[in-house]
Amino acid sequence: MKKLLISVLVLVTLASTAAPANAALPPSMSVVTGKVGYTAYSPLARKAQFSAVSTNKECSFIWDVTNSYVLSFMLDGDTVNTYSHDASLTQSGSILAGTGGYIAGGPYTYTWHVTSGTISGDTVTIQILYDTGAAGTLMTMTGTLASDGTMSGTWTDDLGGVRTGTWSSSNGTASKKYSAGCKGDGVFTYSDGDKNYYMVQIKYLTTNGNRAWFAGPVIHGNVGMGSWLFAQVKDMGKPGVGVDQVWGSFTTEAAAKAGVASMSNPTDGPFTITSGELKVY
């Protein structure tokens, strides 16, 4: 990842189209604007100007359960015993596959494989077939993914009739794969004392309190062409000089979108502004 010596103030107020600061904004809309100076890794003077507005604050993602887990099963009516299985799950699109065995940590007296499985939103459905121990037994698991990536739900199987129970995951979590959302519209420009310059078309934006994150492709300039800019700004109020901060790095489209959605820190920064002001509202 290239270090981007950029002055990153996330001004999210489209210079020509964003609502003025005193205008009433829809609850789902955020604005970032800025015109600032700063220094980064050297005394070189840098300038950044930006203006952008959010068009959709929801950050879309899909769960990816690819990981190794311990799945703990309890049988309805049995409040004492917990049956812990190792499980290795993979995911392609919304389709799941995997294998597992009891007892967790091995050696396994029961083994099984996933015959079908799907992810839809926060809902996971897995059907497993036992290969050894209870060969031929079919279990169906349904569950919900919590915000921390853990899973829990209910199960049924056909061992000796119909049995039911509950299950939960531990020692492993699902991850969020950000796909879209957090959309924004705006422009960011950068220049410095060495005559480097570039312009970014802001396509993704999200805010949280006094912070904003944005991203977009470099569309013009003598540095950064072919890359995406991922940036963050922090509005500490007035006056902003000496307290407001900016971050920014050149990266890939996928990494920039994920960074905005997850509200993570760009590689480069923070840099404290030496002139100007930025606003997040």
Written account of the structure:
- The protein contains 1 helix and 16 strands.
- It has 281 residues and is mostly beta strands.
- The protein has an 8-stranded antiparallel β-barrel with strand order 1-2-11-12-13-14-15-16. Strands 3-4-5-6-7-8-9-10 form an 8-stranded antiparallel barrel.
- The longest helix is centred in the last third of the chain and has 10 residues, at 253-262.
- The protein is elongated, with a radius of gyration of 25 Å.
Give a brief outline of the structure.
The chain is mainly β. The chain is built from 1 helix and 16 strands. It has 2 domains: 31-59 and 181-280; 66-173, Porin (Beta Barrel), CATH 2.40.160.90.
How are the SSEs ordered, and which strands pair?
Layout: E1 31-38, E2 46-64, E3 67-75, E4 83-92, E5 95-102, E6 110-120, E7 123-132, E8 138-145, E9 151-157, E10 163-170, E11 175-192, E12 197-208, E13 211-221, E14 228-234, E15 245-251, H1 253-262, E16 271-280
Antiparallel strand pairs: 1-2, 1-16, 2-11, 3-4, 3-10, 4-5, 5-6, 6-7, 7-8, 8-9, 9-10, 11-12, 12-13, 13-14, 14-15, 15-16
Mean pLDDT over the residues: 89
Trace the largest sheet across and list its strands. 1-2-11-12-13-14-15-16
Biggest pleated-sheet summary: 8 strands, antiparallel, barrel
Approximate shape:
elongated
Overall structural domain count? 2
- Which value, in Å, is the CA radius of gyration? 25 Å
- Helix coverage percent of residues? under 10%
Q: How many beta-strand runs?
A: 16
Helix count from the secondary structure assignment:
1
**Oligomeric state of the chains?**
single chain
Overall SS class: mainly beta
SSE series: EEEEEEEEEEEEEEEHE
How far from one another are the termini? 30 Å
Strand content: over 45%
Query: Which stretches are low in confidence, meaning pLDDT under 50 for 5 or more residues running?
Result: 1-27
